[in-house]
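thread: overnight batch results

M.L. [08:02]
morning all. the overnight job finished for the chain we discussed friday. pasting input first so we're all looking at the same thing
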Amino acid sequence: MIRFKPLPGFTFAALIMVAILIGLGVWQLQRLKWKEGLIATVSAHMTAPPVSLDEAMQMGADDVQYRRVALAGIFDNARESYVFTTNAGGEPAYHVLTPLVTDDGKVMMVDRGEIPAEKLSPKTRTAVGGLTHIVGVWRVPDAPGWFTPKPDLAKHIWYARDLLGIAAVQGVRLSTPAVIEADASPNPGGWPKGGQTVVDFPNNHLQYAITWFGLAAGLIGVYAAYHISKGRLGLG
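M.L. [08:03]
and the structure it wrote out:
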Protein backbone atom coordinates (compact mmCIF):
# COMPACT_ATOMS: atom_id res chain seq x y z
CA MET A 1 0.00 0.00 0.00
CA ILE A 2 1.34 3.43 -0.96
CA ARG A 3 1.46 6.06 1.77
CA PHE A 4 1.35 9.67 0.52
CA LYS A 5 1.00 12.85 2.58
CA PRO A 6 1.60 15.75 0.16
CA LEU A 7 2.87 19.11 1.36
CA PRO A 8 0.06 21.50 0.34
CA GLY A 9 2.12 24.53 -0.68
CA PHE A 10 4.80 22.54 -2.53
CA THR A 11 2.16 20.40 -4.22
CA PHE A 12 0.20 23.42 -5.45
CA ALA A 13 3.32 25.11 -6.85
CA ALA A 14 4.49 21.87 -8.46
CA LEU A 15 1.13 21.28 -10.13
CA ILE A 16 1.18 24.77 -11.62
CA MET A 17 4.74 24.39 -12.90
CA VAL A 18 4.10 20.92 -14.37
CA ALA A 19 0.94 22.20 -16.11
CA ILE A 20 2.90 25.12 -17.59
CA LEU A 21 5.73 22.90 -18.81
CA ILE A 22 3.37 20.36 -20.37
CA GLY A 23 1.43 23.22 -21.97
CA LEU A 24 4.64 24.57 -23.51
CA GLY A 25 5.46 21.09 -24.83
CA VAL A 26 2.03 20.73 -26.42
CA TRP A 27 2.37 24.22 -27.95
CA GLN A 28 5.68 23.22 -29.51
CA LEU A 29 4.06 20.12 -31.02
CA GLN A 30 1.41 22.37 -32.53
CA ARG A 31 4.14 24.63 -33.89
CA LEU A 32 5.87 21.56 -35.30
CA LYS A 33 2.75 20.61 -37.24
CA TRP A 34 2.39 24.18 -38.52
CA LYS A 35 6.07 24.39 -39.56
CA GLU A 36 5.93 21.07 -41.39
CA GLY A 37 2.86 22.29 -43.27
CA LEU A 38 4.63 25.55 -44.16
CA ILE A 39 7.71 23.73 -45.44
CA ALA A 40 5.56 21.38 -47.54
CA THR A 41 3.61 24.32 -49.00
CA VAL A 42 6.72 26.30 -49.90
CA SER A 43 8.36 23.23 -51.43
CA ALA A 44 5.27 22.63 -53.57
CA HIS A 45 5.22 26.29 -54.68
CA MET A 46 8.92 26.27 -55.59
CA THR A 47 8.62 23.13 -57.72
CA ALA A 48 5.33 23.98 -59.44
CA PRO A 49 5.32 25.34 -63.00
CA PRO A 50 5.52 29.15 -63.20
CA VAL A 51 2.26 31.09 -63.21
CA SER A 52 1.66 34.30 -65.12
CA LEU A 53 1.86 37.67 -63.42
CA ASP A 54 -1.90 38.15 -63.76
CA GLU A 55 -2.53 34.77 -62.13
CA ALA A 56 -0.12 35.57 -59.31
CA MET A 57 -1.77 38.91 -58.60
CA GLN A 58 -5.16 37.21 -58.22
CA MET A 59 -3.88 34.72 -55.62
CA GLY A 60 -4.12 35.18 -51.89
CA ALA A 61 -1.05 36.32 -49.96
CA ASP A 62 -0.27 32.86 -48.57
CA ASP A 63 -0.89 31.05 -51.84
CA VAL A 64 1.35 33.29 -53.93
CA GLN A 65 4.34 33.50 -51.57
CA TYR A 66 7.30 31.57 -53.03
CA ARG A 67 5.44 30.92 -56.28
CA ARG A 68 7.48 30.98 -59.46
CA VAL A 69 6.17 33.68 -61.77
CA ALA A 70 6.85 34.25 -65.47
CA LEU A 71 6.63 37.81 -66.75
CA ALA A 72 8.00 40.07 -69.43
CA GLY A 73 8.70 43.76 -69.62
CA ILE A 74 11.32 46.48 -69.91
CA PHE A 75 13.73 47.20 -67.08
CA ASP A 76 13.87 50.82 -65.90
CA ASN A 77 17.64 50.65 -65.44
CA ALA A 78 17.89 54.32 -64.46
CA ARG A 79 16.04 53.49 -61.21
CA GLU A 80 18.24 50.70 -59.89
CA SER A 81 18.64 50.32 -56.15
CA TYR A 82 21.05 48.16 -54.21
CA VAL A 83 20.48 46.14 -51.05
CA PHE A 84 23.59 45.39 -49.01
CA THR A 85 24.37 41.79 -48.10
CA THR A 86 27.39 39.51 -47.90
CA ASN A 87 28.36 36.73 -50.25
CA ALA A 88 29.19 33.12 -49.38
CA GLY A 89 32.71 34.18 -48.38
CA GLY A 90 31.46 36.92 -46.04
CA GLU A 91 32.55 39.73 -48.38
CA PRO A 92 30.33 42.76 -49.09
CA ALA A 93 27.87 42.24 -51.93
CA TYR A 94 24.66 43.82 -53.17
CA HIS A 95 21.36 42.73 -54.63
CA VAL A 96 20.24 44.77 -57.64
CA LEU A 97 16.58 45.81 -57.47
CA THR A 98 15.20 47.19 -60.71
CA PRO A 99 11.63 48.14 -61.65
CA LEU A 100 10.24 46.23 -64.61
CA VAL A 101 7.39 47.72 -66.64
CA THR A 102 5.16 45.19 -68.39
CA ASP A 103 3.46 45.81 -71.73
CA ASP A 104 0.14 46.47 -69.99
CA GLY A 105 1.63 49.05 -67.65
CA LYS A 106 2.19 47.02 -64.49
CA VAL A 107 5.31 47.88 -62.51
CA MET A 108 7.04 45.12 -60.55
CA MET A 109 10.23 45.28 -58.53
CA VAL A 110 12.68 42.60 -59.62
CA ASP A 111 15.61 41.41 -57.53
CA ARG A 112 17.90 40.63 -60.45
CA GLY A 113 20.52 38.95 -58.27
CA GLU A 114 23.82 39.58 -56.57
CA ILE A 115 26.85 41.65 -57.57
CA PRO A 116 30.20 42.16 -55.83
CA ALA A 117 31.10 45.62 -54.50
CA GLU A 118 33.28 46.39 -57.54
CA LYS A 119 30.25 45.93 -59.81
CA LEU A 120 28.07 48.40 -57.94
CA SER A 121 28.32 51.04 -60.65
CA PRO A 122 26.04 50.27 -63.63
CA LYS A 123 28.92 51.32 -65.91
CA THR A 124 30.77 48.14 -64.89
CA ARG A 125 27.92 45.92 -66.06
CA THR A 126 26.09 45.25 -69.33
CA ALA A 127 22.69 46.91 -69.34
CA VAL A 128 19.65 44.87 -70.35
CA GLY A 129 17.49 46.77 -72.82
CA GLY A 130 14.32 45.97 -74.71
CA LEU A 131 11.69 43.40 -73.89
CA THR A 132 13.01 40.92 -71.32
CA HIS A 133 11.43 37.64 -70.23
CA ILE A 134 12.18 36.48 -66.71
CA VAL A 135 11.08 33.76 -64.32
CA GLY A 136 11.41 34.49 -60.63
CA VAL A 137 10.09 33.74 -57.17
CA TRP A 138 7.36 35.93 -55.70
CA ARG A 139 8.31 37.24 -52.28
CA VAL A 140 6.87 39.79 -49.87
CA PRO A 141 9.94 40.89 -47.90
CA ASP A 142 9.89 41.56 -44.18
CA ALA A 143 9.69 45.21 -43.15
CA PRO A 144 12.90 46.87 -41.92
CA GLY A 145 13.59 46.32 -38.23
CA TRP A 146 14.34 48.86 -35.51
CA PHE A 147 18.06 48.28 -35.91
CA THR A 148 18.18 48.37 -39.72
CA PRO A 149 20.65 51.11 -40.75
CA LYS A 150 19.30 54.08 -42.66
CA PRO A 151 19.76 53.89 -46.44
CA ASP A 152 22.47 55.78 -48.27
CA LEU A 153 20.12 57.67 -50.56
CA ALA A 154 22.91 59.33 -52.52
CA LYS A 155 24.21 55.93 -53.62
CA HIS A 156 20.79 54.20 -53.60
CA ILE A 157 22.08 51.65 -51.09
CA TRP A 158 19.61 50.07 -48.69
CA TYR A 159 20.03 47.61 -45.85
CA ALA A 160 16.65 45.91 -46.19
CA ARG A 161 14.31 45.34 -49.10
CA ASP A 162 12.03 48.17 -48.06
CA LEU A 163 10.02 48.11 -51.28
CA LEU A 164 7.73 51.01 -50.41
CA GLY A 165 10.65 53.16 -49.30
CA ILE A 166 12.70 52.29 -52.38
CA ALA A 167 9.77 52.97 -54.70
CA ALA A 168 9.06 56.32 -53.05
CA VAL A 169 12.68 57.46 -53.36
CA GLN A 170 12.93 56.29 -56.97
CA GLY A 171 9.59 57.80 -57.94
CA VAL A 172 8.08 54.43 -58.85
CA ARG A 173 4.51 53.33 -58.25
CA LEU A 174 4.59 49.57 -57.81
CA SER A 175 1.57 47.53 -58.84
CA THR A 176 1.98 45.45 -55.68
CA PRO A 177 4.48 45.54 -52.79
CA ALA A 178 6.18 42.29 -53.78
CA VAL A 179 9.55 41.50 -55.28
CA ILE A 180 10.28 38.94 -57.98
CA GLU A 181 13.57 37.17 -57.25
CA ALA A 182 15.01 36.33 -60.67
CA ASP A 183 16.16 32.78 -61.28
CA ALA A 184 19.68 31.75 -62.26
CA SER A 185 19.25 32.43 -65.99
CA PRO A 186 22.50 34.17 -67.00
CA ASN A 187 22.49 37.92 -67.58
CA PRO A 188 24.53 39.63 -70.32
CA GLY A 189 28.08 40.03 -69.07
CA GLY A 190 27.42 37.60 -66.21
CA TRP A 191 26.08 40.15 -63.71
CA PRO A 192 23.93 40.25 -61.66
CA LYS A 193 23.86 36.57 -60.71
CA GLY A 194 20.27 35.47 -60.12
CA GLY A 195 18.99 32.39 -58.36
CA GLN A 196 19.65 33.85 -54.92
CA THR A 197 16.36 32.78 -53.33
CA VAL A 198 17.01 31.25 -49.92
CA VAL A 199 14.46 28.92 -48.35
CA ASP A 200 15.46 28.25 -44.76
CA PHE A 201 12.85 27.46 -42.12
CA PRO A 202 14.55 26.19 -38.94
CA ASN A 203 12.45 23.40 -37.49
CA ASN A 204 13.55 22.65 -33.93
CA HIS A 205 10.09 22.38 -32.42
CA LEU A 206 10.33 18.65 -31.68
CA GLN A 207 13.53 19.20 -29.69
CA TYR A 208 11.87 22.06 -27.82
CA ALA A 209 8.84 19.89 -27.06
CA ILE A 210 11.04 17.09 -25.73
CA THR A 211 12.87 19.63 -23.56
CA TRP A 212 9.67 20.96 -22.01
CA PHE A 213 8.25 17.49 -21.41
CA GLY A 214 11.60 16.41 -19.97
CA LEU A 215 11.59 19.35 -17.55
CA ALA A 216 8.05 18.42 -16.49
CA ALA A 217 9.15 14.83 -15.86
CA GLY A 218 12.20 16.05 -13.96
CA LEU A 219 10.08 18.29 -11.76
CA ILE A 220 7.77 15.37 -10.96
CA GLY A 221 10.84 13.34 -10.03
CA VAL A 222 12.12 16.11 -7.74
CA TYR A 223 8.68 16.39 -6.16
CA ALA A 224 8.51 12.64 -5.50
CA ALA A 225 12.11 12.48 -4.19
CA TYR A 226 11.50 15.35 -1.80
CA HIS A 227 8.40 13.71 -0.35
CA ILE A 228 10.25 10.40 -0.02
CA SER A 229 13.08 12.15 1.84
CA LYS A 230 10.57 13.62 4.28
CA GLY A 231 8.87 10.27 4.85
CA ARG A 232 5.68 11.47 3.18
CA LEU A 233 5.80 9.08 0.24
CA GLY A 234 6.51 5.38 0.42
CA LEU A 235 5.13 1.95 1.10
CA GLY A 236 3.44 1.33 4.36
